[in-house]
Amino acid sequence: MGNNPFSAPSIEDAKLYASWGLDISYMVNWCITPEQYKELTGKDYTAPTTDTTTA
Hints:
Helix content is 31%, strand content 0%. It is mainly α. The protein is globular. It has helices spanning 11-19, 34-41.
């Protein structure tokens, strides 16, 4: 984020947060790609579902 608190996080921020064990999935398609997510976490990115059907 650099010195500007209003700037978007960068790939460097994502690397730092991932190293701390934080969930960085919210950053995918905003400041990192699904491929970068997998590189940083070792997990495939799964987009959240918006299925609202009920059984």
